[in-house]
Backbone:
């Protein structure tokens, strides 16, 4: 885990590569082509790159028009604007007609840091989840993002890819299939279902819990919709307690997606770790992770507290 | 096609629209009637269409940005043979492909799902942009209501259409001067529409009588190079039925059976 690369960088590089092999791919941006790294594509394919200016609603609609003409548009801006400002355009112009438009939004979550709470999308997964037919991918690292971009392009229908600003560790190369979770570590006391930048933290926390003789499974649910029900059921049955961990509000995100699967299969104790119904704020990413209890020490503490209070763990 | 035939078509399909809305007991008659000459001029004269192959890539595209005028679009598409006229009386009914607002997934011939105002014009702009990159001669037409111009997205789209020099795009404003809550001037005055579109970089053509199909056709025939075209058609809401004309109350209200009979009589329908 030596190399650190942001998932937005992976997206920018993957999109440019994709442009080489698929001439139907076009890119749209709302004055953030540097931040979303779509400027790599722009340099290579200026005739297939469109800056919509600071006008996200129209950018969303134009992408739909381009998809109607046979193109595969990738729309990028900050997640808060692409899924928030333009929510109803995404819902009615993309979701309702099931348009073949890919939303690759960067600067999601609190790792955005200094720009503050106005710019940190903590509800984007929730907003996209309630749109019927929307596929949602929150990749954990460079390799997974790269694969997700190519998978989204070959997939017919709207896809939301959630990207981050902060450089993060490059993890082990795993097979990637939309809708299929990956088991990164096996265990039987506790399972952590997670996605995005929380995946590497979950792995580290799992290592540390070994010292307490707690055997932890880590499952990377990179696709939040459609969610991998089988893997959730399997690990819920094998493990005595369930933790969900995400850099998103605990309302409507990965945690709720997991809970929805398990709600009809009896009593599974679930602890949802994430942003606890609060807005973000300015600060260094590490300071924010600590404050919102998404740093490894806090995650460890909260998991231990959960096990001690809720879980009837047999020694 | 002869003007007389086109005028006859307008009358006929006005009746079809009113019958659909009467049967559904809901719908938007006023704005469907005001744009009848616009949509007839497009589908019967101006646009390159292929009802036998509705997904033909080389077809011109039509986006009804004012999606609530769906009855006008459905009446035209059925008459053109995109689907059977038999289903027109299922408008707004459960399981009907004729949704309250156009749904391209459910109905052949509909090029874009619209209804949420301001969104259709962006889709049309994207289509025109797509045709430009493909370097083909596909033309894109979109019809907006004048009330719809209050949506900020309309001006975002105008900016983009001019910026990308989309001379294959024609934006048509059905300027009937009424919206649900009253006159557009009273509710929220958009001001001078022509000078606004000119300022955004459009070639603007005003049609004094937007319910005169000759004038609409002339405006559509004007060739513009290097910039998008905007036709402002001054129309009458509820056009063709004396008790509906210029009446704000007929924006989104169905005719009862008696009113329908009076209207059809006036339009010269028999039976």
Residues:
């Amino acid at each position: 885990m030596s190399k650190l690369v942001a998932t937005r960088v992976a997206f920018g590089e993957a999109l440019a590569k994709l442009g080489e092999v698929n001439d139907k791919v076009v890119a749209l941006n709302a004055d953030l082509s540097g931040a979303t790294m779509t400027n790599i594509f722009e340099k290579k394919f200026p005739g297939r790159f469109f800056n919509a200016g600071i006008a996200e609603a129209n950018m969303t609609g134009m992408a739909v028009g381009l998809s109607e003409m046979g193109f595969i548009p990738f729309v990028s801006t900050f997640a808060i604007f692409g899924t928030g400002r333009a929510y109803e355009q995404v819902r009615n112009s993309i979701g309702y007609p099931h348009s073949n438009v890919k939303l690759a939004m960067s600067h999601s979550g609190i790792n955005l840091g200094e720009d503050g709470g106005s710019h940190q999308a903590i509800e984007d997964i929730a907003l996209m989840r309630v749109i019927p037919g929307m596929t949602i991918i929150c990749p954990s690292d460079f390799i997974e993002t790269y694969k997700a971009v190519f998978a989204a392009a070959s997939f017919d229908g709207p896809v939301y890819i959630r990207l981050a600003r902060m450089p993060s560790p490059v993890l082990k190369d795993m097979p990637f299939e939309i809708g299929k979770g990956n088991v990164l570590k096996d265990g039987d006391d506790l399972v952590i279902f997670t996605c995005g930048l929380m995946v590497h933290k979950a792995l580290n926390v799992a290592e540390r819990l070994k010292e307490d003789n707690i055997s932890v499974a880590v499952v990377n649910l990179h696709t939040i919709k459609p969610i991998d029900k089988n893997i959730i059921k399997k690990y819920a049955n094998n493990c005595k307690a369930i933790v969900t961990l995400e850099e998103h509000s605990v309302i409507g995100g990965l945690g709720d997606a997991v809970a929805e699967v398990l709600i009809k299969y009896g009593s599974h104790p679930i602890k949802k770790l994430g942003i606890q119904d609060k807005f973000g704020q300015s600060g260094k990413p590490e300071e924010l992770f600590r404050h919102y209890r998404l740093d490894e020490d806090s995650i460890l503490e909260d998991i231990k507290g959960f096990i001690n209070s809720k879980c009837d763990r047999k020694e | 096609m002869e003007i007389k035939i086109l005028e006859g078509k307008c009358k006929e399909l006005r009746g079809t629209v009113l019958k659909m809305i009467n049967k559904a007991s809901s719908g938007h008659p006023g704005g469907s009637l005001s744009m009848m000459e616009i949509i007839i001029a497009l589908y019967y004269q101006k646009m390159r269409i292929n009802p036998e192959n509705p997904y033909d890539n080389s077809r011109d595209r039509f986006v009804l940005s004012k999606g609530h005028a769906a009855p006008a679009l459905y009446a035209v598409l059925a008459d053109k043979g995109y689907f059977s006229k038999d289903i027109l009386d299922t408008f707004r009914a459960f399981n009907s492909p004729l949704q309250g607002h156009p749904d391209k997934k459910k109905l052949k011939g509909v090029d874009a799902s619209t209804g949420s105002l301001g969104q259709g014009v962006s889709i049309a702009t994207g289509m025109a942009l797509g045709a430009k990159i493909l370097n083909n001669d596909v033309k894109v037409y979109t019809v907006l209501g004048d009330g719809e111009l209050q949506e900020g997205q309309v001006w975002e789209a105008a900016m983009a259409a001019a910026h990308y020099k989309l001379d294959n795009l024609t934006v048509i404003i059905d300027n009937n001067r009424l919206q649900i809550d009253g006159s557009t001037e009273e509710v929220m005055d958009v001001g001078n529409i022509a000078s606004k579109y000119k300022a955004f970089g459009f070639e603007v053509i005003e049609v004094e009588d937007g319910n005169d199909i000759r004038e609409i056709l002339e405006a559509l025939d004007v060739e513009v190079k290097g910039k998008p075209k905007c036709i402002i058609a001054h129309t009458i809401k509820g056009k063709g039925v004396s008790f509906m004309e210029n009446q704000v109350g007929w924006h989104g209200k169905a005719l009862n059976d008696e009113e329908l009979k009076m209207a059809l009589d006036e339009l010269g329908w028999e039976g």
